Amino acid sequence: MNYEQLVQFVIGDTGESLGKFVPELILCGSILLMLLLRLFDFTRRLLPSWFIALVGVTAAFVYSAPWVFLADGGQISRSEIFTGMLVYDTFTVYFRALLTFATALFIILTRLTGLANRENDSDFYTLVLGATVGMCLMASANHFLIVFLSIEMASIPSYALVGILKSNRKSSEASMKYAVYGAGAAGIMLYGISLLAGISGSAHLPTIAWRLSQGIGADYQLVLVLAALMLLVGMAFKLSAVPFHFWCPDAFEGASAEVNGFLSVVSKAAALALLVRLAVGFSLPPAAEPVMGANEVVMASGDQRANPAAAGLMIAKQQNAPIFATAWAEDSRQGHDPPSVAEVVPVADAPADAGATPTRTFLAYVIAIMAAVTCTFGNLAAYGQTNIKRLLAYSTIAHAGYMMMPIAAGLLMLENNPLGATEAFAALLLYAFLYVFMNLGAFAIVAFVRNAIGSEEIVDYAGLVRSSPGLVFCFAAILFSLIGLPPLAGFLAKLVIFSGLVNAGMFWLLFIAGANTVISLFYYLNVLRVMIFDPEPETREPIHFPMISLRGIYVAVLTAPMVLLIIQWNGLYEWAIAACKNLAGA
Amino acid sequence: MFLEAVDVFEKKDSKRKAMIDFLSQPVGLTHYLIVGAVMFVAGLVCMATKRNALGVLMGIELVLNGANLNFVAFGSGFLIRNPAYQLGLDGQIISLFVIVLAAAEAAIALAIVLNFYNNHSTVDVDRADELKG
User: Fold this and answer.
1) Residue A462 CB partners (closer than 8 Å, separation 6+)
2) pTM of this prediction?
3) Is B101 inside a domain boundary?
4) Under an 8 A CB cutoff, do B133 and A329 touch?
5) Is residue B12 part of a domain?
6) Which residue among A149, A194, A233, B62 sits deepest, i.e. has the most Cβ atoms within 10 Å of its Cβ?
7) B120 contacts in chain A (CB < 8 Å)
8) What's the CA angle centered on A356, arms A374 and A217, to 5 degrees?
9) Measured between alpha carbons, how far is A536 from A139 in angstroms, rounded to an integer?
10) Alpha-carbon span A79 to A296, nearest angstrom
């Protein structure tokens, strides 16, 4: 491959990739437009930032077009774009749509509560859209550079968003804690990535998975485990999973309720998507050595138009077929021969009843145990809370635990029962979607009540039902849905997750999840008890929250799916299944 | 002349010879990784023990740069471990991106620390204890 061919390849690849990258490009364009228009006073008045942000996010949602790509069991197959940096498949489409949709709801919410005022609104929406771009990249990462880059792109604006209330003591403390913890976790994760990339000699996710499955890193098993744990630190931080959850209640208490909604819904969904990408990527190595950035189309064209290193590697492979035939490998093996997993249980000859390779079992159980601990801790710690935002923060931690459970189940079923694995991952996707309405709705109500009474203590919610019954009804529906009681959408979400656990045979995890649901009943209902049965405090003037107003309609719109989705949810579930069909290869 | 000196040491002390062997090796991948690891651990200790928020941020920079050094070393064409499984240019590119990201992160973190100072008149992380429970 000479220079001209290389340029031709890059031009062709980039052109093809840009077509599949339109939603992110629209978001970037909106950011630039916002920054340009704020320069002049009259343009700022003509096109306010919230409007550009909303239009940009909506356009990104329309261009991600889940109704086109996810219809009839998925219209597109997996392809790698930008020479293998990103992966574009139905999973990407689903999460892009989910993230932009939730961000659009969030922008409307900030507009209704007046969080961003005229002076700082372009800063605020620039940060929001920047974080959204990063989160979209998280859902489509296929290379460790993008994994790290996207996590940072999502995190750094989030630090600033938490501290957006500049003169607030609590807010500044929360953002400092979040930034310090976040940057530390990112640094540790980067070190883990460097070890992993160094051992396998690649940063391309499928290539690493393939090489590890061939026993490349078998001599450095301790280092590999260390690298995996360091990676997990970064992921656990983003997911606010125990033991890296410390930042979550503090950041949520200090930040404004709207930003909490954004962090708990959008950021968490993106982190879960990335966790699925990493876990499945490592558990299901490709059958043949993957060529970075080469899709079926490029391969089929016959000439070696893949990137030069990869093409060279392919030739080298053809010349000396077995990998361990290289002198280097022989040398390193003669001296000492530690028991390597890949040798003890080769992938191809794995006993049928074992079902999973060691990597997969290891990952599945680490995630399962983390999920169980996170879930239990979140629910138990939520008990003693008096601040509604802190309570919802612990509830968020608990729900992160619930949402990690199907990943573990899916990993266990990945090889023997691809259909079951697809359904388990689809359960996560469905839960993430319903969670948008539940948690954004809850935080929206908290924000509206804060604007009305200036307090976020649960005690001050006493007797709310007398002055604004509509609001309390909506809050009740959302809280019952968060618990997962039968007629509401939250029940649906829990049901699909639990059925995934049953399919995988993880009954101990099912038991923990069930017990947690019962535990969570009490603290959610405590909020309702205060709102409905306690007398109104004398000091607080009665608040009137008319349901026939923009705010009322917003809350009603977020609550409606809780009640209505139980009637007709097949279409949604089919989309979720379609989004996961490329993952497990079912 | 140097070799003669080594011979003398060999007779005297085999431990010392091993040390000389180690020190007179050409600089390889391991040396870089050791420096990277030392930087990483120093950064972690700095993050864990410093009470000044700026000190903590310096610790984070050390951690990032320790990882960066690993990437550069793994990617270098002069420190070849196994030609077929060389990180190559990817390593250098990643380290460039990390430098940019570290700058962005430092900018945001410094702004946040300044904001904290405006509200609390201190940059002591132990004084950030109003939120708990």
Assistant:
1) A530, A531, A534, A535, A536, A537
2) 0.88
3) yes
4) no
5) no
6) A194
7) 169, 172-173
8) 90
9) 46
10) 8
- What region, left, alpha or beta, does residue A40 occupy, with left being phi > 0 and alpha being psi -120 to 50 degrees? beta
Each residue of A53-62: pLDDT tens digit? Answer: 999 999 999 9
Q: Which of A183, A200, A201 sits opposite B60 (nearest CB)?
A: A183
Residues 6+ apart with CB under 8 A from A335: none
Residue B11 within a domain: no
Q: Are A175 and A255 in contact (CB under 8 A)?
A: yes
Q: Which H, E and C letters describe A122-171, residue by residue?
A: HHHHHHHHHHHHHHHHHHCECEHHHHHHHHHHHHHHHHHHHCCCCCCHHH
Shortest Cα distance, chain A CAs vs residue B107, angstroms: 10
Q: Which are the contacts of A133, defined by CB distance < 8 A and separation ≥ 6?
A: A24, A27, A28, A31, A153
Of A191, A201, A326, the CB nearest to B63: A191
Contact A223, A195 (CB under 8 A): yes
Helix, strand and coil content of chain B, in percent to the nearest 5, comes to: 75, 0, 20
Residue A566 has a pLDDT of 77
Average pLDDT value for residue range A529-550: 82
Query: Using 50, 70 and 90 to split pLDDT, how confident is the model at A181?
Result: very high
Return the DSSP state at B129.
Answer: -
CATH code, domain carrying B43:
1.10.287.3510
Asked if the structure places residue B111 within a domain, the reply is yes
CB contact under 8 A, B70 and A163: no
For residue A172, count other CB atoms closer than 10 A to its CB. 25
Q: Does A308 touch chain B (CB under 8 A)?
A: no
- CB atoms inside a 10 Å sphere around CB A521: 16
How many domains is chain B partitioned into structurally? 1
Q: Check residue B1 and give its pLDDT.
A: 54
Annotated domain spans of chain A: 10-289, 361-586
Domain that holds residue B123: 30-127
- Report residue A143: phi and psi, to 5°: -145, 145
The shortest CB-CB distance from A309 to any of B44, B88, B130 is to: B88
Q: Helices marked H in A240-340 — which ranges?
A: 247-254, 257-262, 268-283, 296-300, 308-319, 327-335
